[in-house]
Design brief:
Layout lengths: L1 E5 L9 H17 L3 E4 L15 H7 L5 E3 L17 H6 L9 E3 L2 E3 L2 E5 L9 E5 L13 H17 L5 E4 L6 H7 L19 H9 L2 E6 L8 E4 L2 E5 L17 E5 L10 E5 L1
Parallel strand pairs: 1-2, 2-3, 7-8, 8-9, 9-11
Antiparallel strand pairs: 1-12, 4-5, 6-7, 10-11, 12-13
Length: 275
């Protein structure tokens, strides 16, 4: 199964960056032929004070590949600018995209899972989990209701005798990404500080305790692209995919291709950058 992670497209009001990002995405899909696209957030600058427009939705829906979106901090309609949209309206514009959510007393949270099935077998071969992050100070992390949902999912799976490996996708890196690099266990480049924002370490703790999470893929930091194994979990940055956000012109835009070998008894995410 070929998964294409895209990150931080930051689609803006019709300028050359949108056209450049579209060309990048079309080339990636044509060359790599992914089965599924996973966008790990900051799809658009929905928090802008300037007009927000949605050409980017036409671009990614036009790729004719199923996709999903983990909301990032810039995807929120913070300033109520012309053209901005609430999160659920963004979800409904995903014509070839599929996204789930839970409704909790604290509101709607866009956490959900995909179980990868093998033919008619009842037990999945692998599972993909998706989380959103907030935008305000103190909320730029996987929220407590989402972590409670994750714990409940693990309990439900125990009752169903499901023990598949889990690959997690989220916009903002966990604080363990910094620990990984400082310990000298990372491969790749670190072009900026690890901006784990409001993360407390609780997310990684729960993922590790589950014994099932084998990989976490994030975006957010545009000029970090390193990865490595931390306490048995692969932590990896996606490659920044869009030209609408910060980053030097010589920093190539692309994606991260993640392959799951479904013939393996325990499919683990094998990944590399693609351009």
């Amino acid at each position: 199964l070929r998964l294409m992670q895209l990150a931080d497209t930051h689609f803006r009001v019709g300028d050359d960056t949108t056209r450049a990002t579209e060309a990048t995405l079309r080339q990636l899909v044509a060359s790599e032929k992914p089965d599924f696209i996973i966008h790990t957030g900051d799809f658009v600058n929905n928090d802008n004070k300037k007009k927000v427009e949605w050409t980017g939705m036409d671009v990614i829906n036009g790729l004719q590949t199923p996709w999903t979106l983990c909301f990032g901090n810039h995807d929120y309609p913070v300033n109520n600018a012309e053209g901005c949209l609430p999160l659920d309206s963004i979800r409904q514009k995903m014509e070839t995209g599929f996204q789930g959510y839970i409704d909790a007393p604290t509101g709607r949270h866009y956490c959900y899972r995909y179980d990868i099935l093998d033919g008619d077998k009842a037990q999945p071969k692998a599972s993909l989990f998706f989380f959103q992050v907030g935008y305000a100070e103190g909320d730029r992390r996987i929220s407590d209701p989402q972590l409670a949902w994750f714990k409940q999912q693990m309990e439900n799976d125990k009752q169903r005798d499901v023990n598949t490996p889990i690959t997690v996708f989220v916009h903002i890196p966990l604080m363990e990404y910094r620990s990984l690099y400082e310990a000298g266990k990372a491969e790749g480049q670190k072009g900026e500080d690890v901006c784990f924002d409001s993360d407390t370490g609780e997310s990684f703790k729960l993922f590790n305790q589950s014994g099932r999470v084998v990989g976490v893929f994030c975006g957010h930091d545009h000029v970090n692209n390193y990865h490595g194994n931390w306490q048995g979990i692969e932590l990896a940055y996606g490659r920044v995919s869009g030209w609408g956000g910060y980053g030097p012109a010589e920093w190539k835009r692309g994606g991260r291709l993640i392959s799951l070998d479904l013939q393996s008894p325990r499919p683990l995410p094998d990944h590399h950058e693609v351009f």
